[in-house]
## 1
Amino acid sequence: MTSMTLDRAATAPVAGTTRIADDKAMLRAAADLTRELSQPKPAIYWADLVASAMVGYGALAVAVTASSTAVVVLAGIVAMLGLYRAMSFIHEVSHMKHGSVPHFRLGWNLLVGIPMLIPSFMYEGVHNLHHAKTRYGTVEDPEYLPLALMKPWTLPLFIVVSALAPVALLFRYAILSPLSVVVPSLRRAIVERYSALAINPQFRRRAPEGAAAIYWNRIEAAASIWAIALVAMVATGVIPLRAFGIAMLIASAVAVINQVRTLVAHLWENEGEPMSVTAQYLDTVNVPPPSLLPALWAPVGLRYHALHHLLPSVPYHALGEAHRRLTAILEAESPYHEASYPGLPGLVWKIGRSTMGRR
């Protein structure tokens, strides 16, 4: 869903990584050392997705039925982490050639996308724009805001507003989708503004065409039917209000942790100028081992976000090996090492300190 508009600080942009030339040695090494890592392994994808979904939904069932507050909280945390990992596969779906892992997109939509009301079309055709070399960090990038150059209050707002995502998604699919069938102007607005997992409020999505439009309509219809059924079951008491409230809180927690990850996924120091590939890399973040917690808050390869921007075709399960190879061969002076950070607190402090200087 598109976020609300965040005001930019009335100060000059930071030069930061904007005018950095490409480091050809790093780019060449990244391409040469990882060629054979680009093939996804279907067994890993399916096992990981199914296991994550089973843990998430199983813990969710415990959380909504338990009478003990301690059990509800513990199961809720496990459910949040499991569902968050399962939902994070939407990132892989948006990058993969679907024939390389047959039926995975459909399986993900049935297991996660439709039940959690984030069908794959909300990221497919959107996320690839973020990776376009001429769009990254510009007003045409749906996943970029110069957060480091904005006013301090925008950061907590950026996080807090994400907690409303489950309610917004339920409204979008239970109410707006059916209405848009008979109101063409509403349909245009929904497609342009409420059908993308984007943070740039200026982004407007183009309507899908051909096979993409057919697939979109089918998956959206399924998500809409599920959303309407969910509302009806809560309204008629089939799903107790307490259970529904707990489930929504867990879904909100998933949205918040993902928004926190988004907050530290980039340095957000570009204010609209085109950037070199190396500059884009340095504006992005790796949180590699030995840190352990990123495996939870940046799952499915997202801890190697900067490396992913260098090698977007490498599947998540191979990014660790790619990072080890590049770390071993590139000299200490290589900009490759500059995108690695030890953990979440330092990254939050870094962007917070940047905004505090722009009151």
Note: Residues 210-235 form the longest helix (26 residues).
## 2
Amino acid sequence: MYRFLLALLLSSSTLLAQQQTSVDAVTFAKGIQQPGIQVFDVRTAGEFNTGHLPDALQADYTKKTEFNERVQYLNKTKPVYVYCLSGGRSSAAARWMRENGFQQVVELEGGINAWKQAGEPLTGVSEKKPQMSVATYEKAIQQKGWVLTDVGATWCPPCRQMEPVLEKFLRENKQVTLVKVDGGNDVELMKAIDAKGLPTFILYKDGKEVWRKQGVVELRVLTEALQR
């Protein structure tokens, strides 16, 4: 009987912990140290660039198309720790995620404001850097042979998913030169080359565009593009 009651108590405690969906900054900070955790910033790109949590991914919750496209690249079976500026957007985003199959979503009470007040550190505070010019880009792609442009960002979930695919592609195809365009900074260049989403891949042969794809691309598709 004693063992039964103890097991019931432990089970209830575990269930309560699992149901705890909103935590303070100190608890949140400890939580994101666990292996396999996904940290998700649902503020705007501009807010993100003023400082964010370590290793965070980003999607603007107020831009429904962007949010819905990027959130699909998160793993629904692994915990997601979500935050915004003060808690409103992250609460709405977390509710949507739970309703759409995410098994464990934890919100930061008070958002970044509470995080700062607790003395927790931010990373990625962007110093304004010059954008890549169209002339610089044109010079990079105007060469004999193959050039692959990768328009992406480290905080973009599908871009993050593409990293190992690109690494393998480049290892297997050493004749291809990679040109990276910063999707969080080189906005004028993105307009010039008509890159409307992240990631966007553009393949050039002898300076001429021969193939383009927006979104996640399989290694097989990248390799087949070289046959053009």
Note: Residues 20-117 form a domain with the Oxidized Rhodanese; domain 1 fold (CATH 3.40.250.10).
## 3
Amino acid sequence: MLQLVDFIVRNRFFLVFVLLETLSIWMVVRNNTYWGATYFNTSNYYVAKTLALSNSVSEYTHLDDINADLASENAHLHALVATLSQAKPLDAPAGYVPDSAFAERFSYTVAKVVDNETNKPNNVITIDKGTAHGIAPGMGVISATGVVGKVRFCSENYSIITSILHSQFMVSTKLVRSNEIGYAKWPGKDPDLIDLVDVSKYTKVYKGDSAVTSNQNSVFPPGIMVGKVESVEVNPNQTFYNIVLQLATDFRNLSYVYVVKNQQLGEQEQLKQRTETTK
């Protein structure tokens, strides 16, 4: 307390000057319309700038929460789209009545990517969800833009994904315009490009055509983007095109993924095994 009094006594002339200046400015602003309007406009401008900066900082610090919310919403939308597309497929024949359980067989779990490889011949991805969250080996993995890979190993809280950028990974893929089905397989070079093999050269293939997952797989819902046709070549000595796709998923900037669970996969696999044993 004594130090405060001593400070005031030592600086009394300066403090009186500041007080009188403040009082003078207040009286000018109060009694002069022009300077009053100028003061309030200027103060409002800087207050608005300060609030905008504060909001920007606050939004930046909450980006992780915002992205997580968007990823959860996308998972819900993926499930809805998959259900609607299977409820009555566009190419279904007249009189076809789909089973409601079949249409709703896919569910989605949001996961965050914690490690991602793109520069190896056999790339894998690590996510922050495991068996404790219902994840199991064999489940498909997609992003907001397209196919990512398939679950290979799981621990309680983490899973390893075999990326589509892996020499042993293939996915059944359909060209939208021609309805021709082939297999997307990575040649091990550019993480933005993938080959589409086993497409007959006796059908028409269009550059820029979309390539999506076909109905002929049990891991991914049909219609998930794989990529777009980048180039098409014909080898005279072969019966298939050499097609290169521009991948729909940007693996260098992969943050969130959706693990796809086929509720009826076990039933399908049991039938396949029974078929194999009776051959």
Note: Residues 2-60 form one domain.
